[in-house]
Amino acid sequence: MPESVTSLPPGDPDDKEAISFRSLELLKARAVREKDHVVRREALLTLAINYSENEDIFEFIKERAVEDSHYSVRKAALQELARFWKGNPETLPLLRERAIEDCNYEVRRAAVKELAENWKHLPEIPELLRDWAENAGDKFVRSVALQELSRCWGKSCCSLSFITDRVVKEKDSFARAIAVQNVAKYWSTEPAVLQLLMDKALDDEHYAVRSVALQELAEKWPSREDILPFIKERAVKDDHYSIRGVAIQELANGWRNEPEILDFIRDRCIHDEDNMVRGIAVSLLASLWPEEPGTFELIMDKAVSDEHYSVRKNAMEELAKTWHKKPETLHLVKDRLLNDSDNFVRITAVQELAKIWHADSGTLPLIKEIALKEKDEFVRDAAVRELIDGWQDEDIKKFIKKFA
């Protein structure tokens, strides 16, 4: 039987020491030679936890942080070095080196995070991160340096001019988005910041940055008269569907009591060219305005008439969740099961019937009929699955045997 590396049997102390040594050597061998990187990583973690006082293990893990072929092992090695050997004078230089030189961005990001978290008391660390945020050749290092500056040092990490410079000059969209969040978080009272974010929400070349800028405008400046019209305009005119989706979500969440917002969301539910935006509008109407006259009828219409299956599916799910007590809803779900052109919608109809209307007298016969006669194999399989999961009586068990 293989020797355990996690426990030692009772016995003579000399025997225990010998077994412990063999266990240590076995773990080191696994951390280097095992083909599976998960096993190598677990062996390395066990070494770090159980032998943190061993100088040889420090040297061993330091080597694996550079030499292992898999990024997850190198990343774990760096994290363990920062955890157990923070005070060793060789650990900090190694992390600084790996933050720039490792070939994998996950390892580089991890190294930056460990530097910020464990050596934040050193004045040179925020200075180093500011330099990386501006000048590092790797976009992942620039972005994580900005994140960590904000997380660990807040407003004191940088000047306004430094952050606005990153908002304007940073080439990577993710790093620009982080800079936008930081400038809004710490300098929202500065007059120039509002205009900067409006410019980014309007003109940034990447939709992710425009999206973040729009969200920050809605959160930080909701009382300004020009913000609501600006977001409404973006909800219609931005050429990227995700921005329009974010815009209507911000309008609904921040200005739902404004009289024109309900009609605006209804209009987007009907007229936006993208199915995702129409689907978001359906969900907003159902969750925020379920009692308003016309909401139920509009979502009923979208469940039948929208050109995209995802909107019809979403509308049907919202009807089942919010208006399941209305007889019209049950009728619609049955109709979609039988008549919708898309099998995803019909599968959802089967699932909603079994879940919401399990006790209705017409549900079981209809699902059995679908299981027997449906031509689409995926809808048929969904019906069989609902019968298996939802009805345990002997008649159903006999019925199910037909499909074995």
What does this structure look like?
This is HEAT repeat domain-containing protein. Pfam families: HEAT_2. GO terms for molecular function: oxidoreductase activity. The chain has helices spanning 13-33, 37-50, 55-67, 71-84, 91-101, 105-118, 124-135, 139-153, 160-169, 173-186, 191-203, 207-220, 227-237, 241-254, 259-271, 275-288, 295-305, 309-322, 327-339, 343-356, 363-373, 377-390, 394-400. Helices cover 75% and strands 0% of the residues. It has 23 helices and no strands. Among the domains are: 13-111; 324-404. The two termini are 43 Å apart. It has 404 residues and is mainly alpha-helical. The model is unreliable at 1-11 (pLDDT under 50).
How would you concisely characterize the structure shown here?
By secondary structure, this protein is mainly alpha-helical. It has helices spanning 13-33, 37-50, 55-67, 71-84, 91-101, 105-118, 124-135, 139-153, 160-169, 173-186, 191-203, 207-220, 227-237, 241-254, 259-271, 275-288, 295-305, 309-322, 327-339, 343-356, 363-373, 377-390, 394-400. The longest helix has 21 residues, at 13-33.
Specify the structural class: mainly alpha
Largest sheet data: none
User: What global shape is seen?
Assistant: flat
Pattern of helices and strands: HHHHHHHHHHHHHHHHHHHHHHH
Query: Treating each run of at least 4 consecutive H or I residues as one helix, how many helices?
Result: 23
**Which range best describes the helical content: under 10%, 10-25%, 25-40%, 40-55%, 55-70% or over 70%?**
over 70%
Global mean pLDDT:
92
Query: What is the total tally of β strands?
Result: 0
Strand content: under 5%
Uncertain segments? 1-11
Radius of gyration, Cα only, in angstroms? 30 Å
- The N- to C-terminal Cα distance equals 43 Å
